[in-house]
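W.,

You were right to be curious about this one. When I first looked at the sequence I had no strong expectations either way, so I just let the prediction run and decided to look at it fresh. Below is the sequence, 203 residues in total, followed by the output.
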Amino acid sequence: MLSNSNTMTLVSVQPRKWTRDEYYRLGTAAVFPADERVELIHGEIVPMSPHDPLHSGAVENLSTVIHRVFGHSHCVRVQLPLSISKDSDPEPDVFVLRHELARQFRQVHTHPNQGNLVIEVARTSLAYDRLEKHSLYAEAGIPEYWIINLVDRVVEVYREPMEDPSAPFGWSYRKVIRYVAGELLCPLFDDNQLRVDDIFADL
C-alpha cells in the first residue's frame, strides 16, 4: 500500500517596518492618496481619523486659545510632524515648543523632535490616544501630554514620564489630572492659565 503524506508549513509574516526617512520618500513619491491621512508610529504606517466637524472645531478653538495665552514665548504647531525617533513621526493636533528652539529646527530644515507640550483632540480615537499615543509621547520624554476628551468634555493632563513594562511602548505617565468645565489649567512650562470653557466653547 502506498501512502502519500503532505506537510504544510505555516510561516509567520511580520509586517514591514519603515524608518522615518523611508516614510518621507514614500510621501515624496506620492505613494499615499492625496486625501489619505497617515502617520508613522514605531515603524508602522497608521491611518489617521478623518477630520469630522466636531474635531476640527475643537482643534481650531484649542489652537486659538494656546496662541493667545502662550504665543508670545512659544511656537504653536498645528497638525504637523513631530519627529521623535528614527521610526516614529506622529502628527499631534497641537504641539508647543519655545520660539528659539523652533527657529533652530527651521534653520536646519527638519521637524522638531522635542518640546514642552503635546495635545491630541479625541473622540473616536480616545482609546488609542490614551494607550498608544500616551505611551509613545512618554517614551519620547515629552514632559506633558493633554487629551482634549470630546466624549466627556474634560481635559486629561498627563505628566512625569516613567518606564512601564505594561505600556505598549514601555513607557507611561505617572501623574494624571482631569480638568472639567469652570476650571483653569496651567501647563508646566508657563505660569499663565487657560480656561477649560474656552477650549469647548461653541462645541
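Here's what jumped out at me. The mean pLDDT is 91. And, maybe more interesting for your project: The chain is about 25% helix and 25% strand.

Coffee later to discuss?

I.
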